[in-house]
Amino acid sequence: MKFIFACLLALASVVAITEGIECYDDYCAKNPCKDMTRQQCCARNQIYKSKGSFCGCCNTCVDKISKGGNCDTWEIKGAPATSECEAGTECRQVHDENSDTYECQ
Prior knowledge:
By secondary structure, the protein is α+β, with helices and mostly antiparallel strands. Helix content is 27%, strand content 22%. The protein has a domain at 29-73 and 81-105: Lipase, subunit A, CATH 2.10.80. The protein contains 3 helices and 5 strands. A hairpin with a 4-residue loop joins strand 4 and strand 5 (100-104). The protein is flat and about 50 Å long.
């Protein structure tokens, strides 16, 4: 019983911490960027995101998911995405008899 209580307490703490992520007024000033350029993202076959970092401080690159690729990702609330469907596709739920998955279509 104590173990279950400890697990629930730990889970509640994690939720409280992730929900408490906040961008303060001087967050960007205190966390300098290593800005990425469109050329750097393209060279890595990634997608350029203007101000796509946490709190919108920095330009970033995110992984490109091709058509038919799995896009079912778990993102922490408030954190920027680390991947995105390629242009012309979007993440959609695919139903089959075994499971529900998400693919870029």
